[in-house]
């Protein structure tokens, strides 16, 4: 003998329920489709302290305040990663102290002596001499910009 049952109630899926009730958060249930084919190409989160090697004890992030230096691609608000233990190299941008002022300058070597070339054109080179109050604090390794 057969018995007739009433049809099953039409229950909405969780996505449909979420759509019907905007206050109900989506719980991720009843998803459809397939995994993205780009799944193998997705990288994990990028750890900037690892990329910039900030865990080294002599590396410091330094924010640029005041004037920018567009010729070298450095603008106000940028963060420079400075290595205080790096050996000076000709043509590198450095953070230097000149009579107590912190400045950005380009390093130049001439006849075994290091000079700081100021960022403004026509400025006279300054001899690096700790006894005279001029020293290189660190070499700029990289730059982080928050606004493009």
Structure notes:
The chain has a seven-stranded antiparallel β-sheet, with no helix packed on it. The protein has helices spanning 14-20, 48-51, and strands at residues 59-63, 79-83, 93-98, 101-110, 113-118, 126-127, 134-144. It has two helices and seven strands. The relative contact order is 0.15. By secondary structure, it is mainly beta. The mean pLDDT is 84. The longest helix is centred in the N-terminal third of the chain and has 7 residues, at 14-20. A hairpin with a 7-residue loop joins strand 5 and strand 6. Helices cover 7% and strands 30% of the residues.
The general outline is elongated
Order of helices and strands: HHEEEEEEE
DSSP strand tally: 7
Helix content, binned percent: under 10%
Distance between the termini: 76 Å
**Spans where pLDDT lies below 50 across 5 or more residues:** none
Q: Give the integer mean of the pLDDT values.
A: 84
Q: Quickly give the structural class.
A: mainly beta
Strand composition percent: 25-35%
Q: Major β-sheet, in short?
A: 7 strands, antiparallel
The helix tally amounts to 2
Q: For the largest beta sheet, what order do the strands appear in spatially?
A: 1-2-7-3-4-5-6
Whole-number radius of gyration?
30 Å
